[in-house]
Amino acid sequence: MRHHSAFAPALPPAVPSALGRAVAGRGAARPLAARLAAVLLPAGLLPGLLAGLLGAAPAMAQTADPIVSAIQERAADTRVTRSYTLSDLGIDGPVVLQGMDARRDLYLPVPAGVPLSDAAIALDGAYLRGDGGRTTLVVSVDGTPVYSRRLEGDSGSASATIAVDGKPRPTGFVRLGTAWSSVIGEYLCADERGIGNVLKISPKSRFTYSYEAGAVRDLATAWSGMPGSGSLLVAGGTLTKDTYDTAWRLGLALEAAGKRLVVKTLPAIGDEVDLSGLDVPASLRAVAPFSNFVGIGTYRIKDAADLGALLVLPGSPLGADVAVADAGLLTSIKSALDALGARLGPASAAFTEWRTKAASLGAATVAADEVSLQSLAGRPVIAVGGAAGGKATALFDSFWRTSLASGAVTIRAVDAAPQKPSAVSLASLGPAEGNLDVLARGDFVVSFDLAAATGGHSLPSRLNLDVAAAPGASTSEPVVAVFLNDVLLAAKRLDATGHPEHLTAAVPPYALAARNVLRVTFQRQPVSDRCRETPQAFPVSVLPTSHFELGGAAPGGDFLGVIAAMASGGRLVVPEAYLASAKASLPRVVRAAAAAGVPARSSSFEVAGPGASFRAAGAFLALDVPVQGITPKARVEGDRLIVGADDKARLLDISGLKNVALVQALRADDARGIVWQSIGPVAMTPEKPVRLSRGDVALVGVDGTLTELSASGAAPGTVRVADTDGPAGTLQRLWQKSSDWGLPLGIGAAALFFLLLIRASYVRRRGN
After folding, report:
1. C-alpha–C-alpha distance, residues 482 and 460, integer Å
2. Residue 162 and residue 177: Cα distance in Å, rounded?
């Protein structure tokens, strides 16, 4: 049997016999190595044999190189892990369930159509049971009950870990349903109106899941996979005007879609990076430069290889959902990844494979009007060309978004959704379940951005609501009530025959805001007639024909008047210094634009030079830029705030303020706008949405609007509802006021009837 080494050179047939003679004939007087050399050296085979041995050593070492193994392991792991809480979705307070039967659905975003793995909901809840009785919690996922628990004791924890199946969700949401039942009485007809049994679901409840990055193949799926916050990556240093323009429009689109904007800038050498949430994989903790990131809170970037390592690590603080892929960002990412590949040396080939999967943005070429799907920090990222801001924003509108079934598109033209300019359907405003099972009370809730919902047209003037309710066992008719931003618009008793019923209500300007919440509440009588039947929930529906009519206007000079004027587009003006501090200024611009109702698609963007001002014209929003042509109602002098048109009519004069901003609505003959001025040496950025509605001067802090007043003298909220209803609305108002004129009209009609009878009798007698 012959044994061949993998690295042994081929020997001529005469060599084995020569070796045998050399070994046997020369005896043991000479060492074996010397005898072999004496045979191989004359034949010229010794150099080849040594070269084979030495050449095989690096190959064997490379196979066992721990760096190569670690890189290959990372390249094979393409999972993306997401984790967020209910507070990240904008639910700041606890979800409270109370009463005999209460239900609430929560929609948790996931990538549409992508299988999930290791998905679980850590439900953080507590309950109070002051009224006793039987209390039960049922949790469902996508309508299927998966957890049930009977709660006992006066109070306690209702926390639980709910497993979520990994099937794909075509809607892009996991529907978490919570149902609370409280039965106090022991008898069937007992009064169940106790208030002491309450379930509270904390906003700290967390949803965690994983998915394969390769399963995200198109832009629509990548957009739907964003959690409650949307991170936007831009280049470091001073941005160009086009890049900043694209960035604020994308940020506004994220906030309009319910995502809290987080702006990230690519760090430069010498910058500090927060690594508190970074978990370096165990296989890379001994590999430089990844080893520099283990067990530290902040890290100062030493060279380009450090930056490249952060761009490929999963869970990196530089990971983003959307990136403004201008030339500066793409060049910096490519240079950092090239430097990391050179640092890894023998593992560069394995790193190239990992780089292709985890950070393809470093090798991409994104045109100015292109949107493409790339990867960064091991997760999908939407790369938007540096000059594609307005068109990309319109493309990611709820109407066009689902059509992005591709990994890259070039945008030549895009317009708003082809909807009727006179109406906006409720079904187009956001995800909400139109069918409800109501035992005692049920709510249909939808939130919408005013500028995005109206499509740049006028304000909503009337709500037309079509509902249907199934009959119940009780003879009491169910009641439907409509609230807009907690303002009651209308209420009606329903016939509950299962057929569509119509409810209409005028929308007053004072009920509107830049961000609105419409709530339709259904109430039923849960007690059946003489207790012949057990109370049950019966279905009700908000039909898809429900819609807002457009045509309203707010002629006043307050914030709402500016929002109305801004609906069709306006001017956004920022100082040049904002372009050099994008990480701090972009969230401020986005939240100010959201509060003013600035449409991201149809507005223009201007940059004012140092110390320059601009002349007010049309609808505008100006941040920290002086305005000419309009007399302000308040002014800022350093850290001093003065509210009042002149010295004789001052409402407030105070100094020493910080972490606040002055916001005021101004109006002239041909201009109407909002001016945002920072107070103090450091500009403040709100962490929560800013609500502007009924006043014309407001103080804004980190937590949103602090104070809102009317410096012009008119009481906020006294705007008269415009008569824009037409003949149908006039007839309806007359019918609603029939109690005022109905009785006199009836008496007059009866008197006229008797007079006609007397006249007819007189004419008949005279004829005879």
Report:
1. 15
2. 12
Please state, in angstroms and rounded to a whole number, the distance separating the CA atoms of residues 620 and 593. Answer: 10
How far is it, in rounded angstroms, from Cα 284 to Cα 290? 6
- Cα separation, 395 vs 371, whole angstroms: 10
| Triad 191, 197, 198: Cα angle to 5° | 135
Angstrom distance (rounded) from CA 436 to CA 603: 39
| Residue 37 near residue 45 (C-beta atoms within 8 A) | no
Between CA 412 and CA 768 the distance in angstroms is 90
Dihedral in degrees, nearest 10, Cα atoms 82, 85, 91, 96: 130
Residues 484-531 pLDDT 10s: 988 999 999 999 999 999 999 998 877 887 778 899 999 887 765 556
Judge if pTM exceeds 0.85. no
Sheet of 134-141, strand order:
101-109, 173-183, 134-141, 144-151
Distance of CA 617 to the CA centre of its chain: 33
624: enclosing H helix or E strand = none
DSSP H helices, 44-121, are: 46-63, 66-76
Please provide residue 420's backbone torsions phi and psi, each rounded to the nearest 5 degrees: -65, 130
Sort residue 107 into left (φ over 0), alpha (ψ -120 to 50) or beta: beta
3-state SS assignment for residue 174: strand
Residues 229 and 262 sit within 8 Å (Cβ to Cβ): yes
**Which residues have CB under 8 Å from 752's CB, separation 6+?**
none
Query: Dihedrals φ, ψ of 649, to 5°?
Result: -130, 50
Query: Burial code of 565-601, b = ≥16 C-beta within 10 A, e = fewer?
Result: bbbbbbbbbbbeebbeebeebbbbbbbbbbbbbbbbb
DSSP 3-state assignment of 403? helix
> CA 639, CA 679: separation in Å to the nearest integer?
5
Taking phi over 0 as left and psi of -120 to 50 as alpha, with beta for the rest, 150 belongs to beta
Residue 656 confidence (pLDDT): 86
- Arithmetic mean of pLDDT over the chain: 80
Buried b (16+ CB within 10 A) or exposed e, 390-399: bbbbbbbbbe
pLDDT for 414 beyond 90 = no
Greater pLDDT, 562 or 161:
161
**pLDDT, average across residues 190-212:** 86
At 758, is the secondary structure helix, strand, or coil?
A: helix
